[in-house]
Automatic annotation (TrEMBL):
Gene3D superfamilies referenced in this protein's UniProt entry, alphabetically: PCu(A)C copper chaperone
Name of the molecule in the record: Copper chaperone PCu(A)C
Keyword annotations of the record: Signal
Oxidoreductase recorded as keyword: no
Species per Swiss-Prot/TrEMBL record: Pelomonas caseinilytica
Keyword Magnesium: no
Domain of life: Bacteria
Length: 149
C-alpha cells in the first residue's frame, strides 16, 4: 500500500510539473488597412514560474518582436525590447499603449474575422524554451473591458 501511494504521489508530481506552462488568454490581433506593414498582438500571459517572453514567429509576418510603448518628453514612443519579464503566477497584460507583440513585415492585409497563427517563445533559467501556439482572432478595435468575445 505504501509503495502504491508513493508511486501515485510521484506520478502526480510529474504530471503537475509537466503542466507548469505559461498560459495565454484573450489573444487578439489588430486589423490592418491595405499597405500597412505591421500590427500588434495583444494577450495576457501568466507563467507558473519566473520567465521571460523573448519573441516569436508567425507565417503572416517577416518578424515578431516584443515592444514597449512609453511616454517620453510628452511624446508616445514605441521601441523593441529584448525580453519582457513574466513574474511567477502574476498575469502580465500585453495591451495597446503598453507592452505588446509586433508582427512586422506583414505578407498581406490582416482583416477583422481572420485568425492569425502566432508562436510565442518563453524562456526560463535552466529550462528549454517554451513555445505557445496561439490562434489569435483579428479585431478592428480593442475589446471593451468585461465584454465577452
Amino acid at each position: 500500500m505504501k509503495h502504491s501511494l508513493a508511486l501515485l504521489l510521484a506520478s502526480l508530481a510529474l504530471a503537475a510539473s509537466a503542466q507548469a506552462q505559461t498560459v495565454a488568454t484573450d489573444a487578439w490581433v489588430r486589423a490592418t488597412v491595405p499597405g500597412q506593414t505591421a500590427t500588434g498582438l495583444f494577450v495576457q500571459l501568466t507563467s507558473p514560474t519566473k520567465a521571460r517572453l523573448v519573441g516569436g514567429r508567425s507565417p503572416v509576418a517577416a518578424s515578431v518582436e516584443v515592444h514597449e510603448m512609453s511616454m517620453q518628453d510628452g511624446v508616445m514612443r514605441m521601441r523593441a525590447v529584448p525580453t519582457l519579464e513574466l513574474p511567477a503566477g502574476q498575469p502580465v497584460m500585453l495591451k495597446p499603449g503598453s507592452y505588446h507583440v509586433m508582427l512586422m513585415g506583414l505578407k498581406g492585409t490582416v482583416k477583422a474575422g481572420d485568425t492569425v497563427p502566432v508562436t510565442l517563445t518563453v524562456e526560463r533559467d535552466g529550462a528549454a524554451p517554451e513555445t505557445l501556439q496561439l490562434q489569435a482572432p483579428v479585431r478592428t478595435l480593442a475589446p471593451t473591458p468585461g465584454h465577452a468575445h
